[in-house]
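Hi everyone,

Forwarding the result from last night's run.
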Amino acid sequence: MRKLFLSSALTLGVLLAVAPAPAAAQPIAGNLRIGLAEDPDLLDPTLGSSFVGRIVYAAMCDKLFDLDAKLNIVPQLATGYRHESPTSLVITLRPGVVFHDGEKLDAEAAKYKLTRDLTMKGSKRAGEINAIQTIEVVDPLTIRLVLKAPAAQLLSQLTDRAGIMISPKAAEATGDKFGLNPVCAGPYAFDNRVAQDRIILKRHPAHWDAKNHHFERITYLPIPNSAVRLANLQAGSLDLSFIAPSDAPTVKADPELNLVVWDALGYTGINFNVNNGPAANTPIGQNALIRQAFELAIDRKALIDVVFSGMFTPTAQANPASSPFYVPAVQPPARDIAKAKALLAQAGVTGRVPVELTVTNSQEAQQAAEVIQSMVAEAGFDLKVKVMEFASSLQAGYSGNFQAYMIGWSGRSDADGNMWGLMHSKGTFNYGRHTNPAMDQLLDDARVATTVEDRRAIYAKVWEMQRRDLPLIYLYGGKHIVGIQKGLTGFQPVPDGLLRLGGMRFGG
């Protein structure tokens, strides 16, 4: 195996030349090496909140339900469900499932995990499943979720981290340190982790679908610099890697690689701190007119063309155009410097407006921030860019240690997963702590509504309020772009971007 080319190969922004591996280079048998754009946060499905963490969970931690390529909800650790009434959901579990420590998955274990999500201090899942009032064990393989009210979104939440099952024995033994040595029920078990360097999983022979998983080891390698990820992919040091849009033509032209591009569910936006501690006390944090002016100074299409090779889509809402909850009337405004300056004058601004924008340390995020910095300067903003390591930036977001924070959201199949947690005053991912009681009520109402049409109509009203307050500027929706060694077969893209390893193998 060729040596992994590390980010330290960059000196003064110049990538040292790396020759691609010769065509005869072969992957290590049984070891799948995956390049990630960031290092995941804590690997605890109750406390974790990163997309790259979800990618690791997809191999390590099975869920009650999963999504197929068409975003249909399908059984995984559950075998099925039924609604006894609008407020009673019965879930049956797959028999014979064992966690990585040999403990059995049963109804008590499922109740334990859901209760942990609802009650654990710092839980990122509580708001996602807070429709649950009680969890009842019906029999060893059946649970009943008694709901406070009908909850249109709940089943889709169980296709994500709320639906991940963990060993109660391991969780009780480690508490809030569970993420340092997670014990789940997926096809691959946690082996070890070196922060900012690698995460290694090993095959779980007792997995209920072990025959469909063909690797002995999975190695995740966080490489924030996209040029370095590309170099390692071309050199044969990575078998599969997320790549930058600007690198897609290079991968497509490489005879040893396959390029896979597909539509994503998520978006990238700028969150403003409007009510989360002392850092909210800034002109842009306290005045919606100034935030509106900031948005009008941004040319989304030009930003996408420059940084993302035109591959992404401008947006002003959380749900992609493919979603049944998309509201066509909500469109991003055209850049208008004159109007932006007029709004600043209306807000009583004299002089230039200072704003500190926190971004992650990925190459694309920094480039996007620099383009935005140049754009908004023309309207009268002095934008300072603060670069942080990915997981550290998340903690800064939660604690309110930011003025403006540009971060992506990987997207969910149901609109509630893209909106409630980020827009409701009680939402875990409402970094700026924006509060609007009328918006809260609408977001709650949408959870109770029973038809797509009714929910979409409610969300249209939410967007009217959001566009006035503008606590978050939605910039663009993306695509998933992956480069794969041609010897690796069986890859199946799903819009959520998670890497499902079942059926994948070297050599077909």
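The mean pLDDT is 93.

Cheers,
N.
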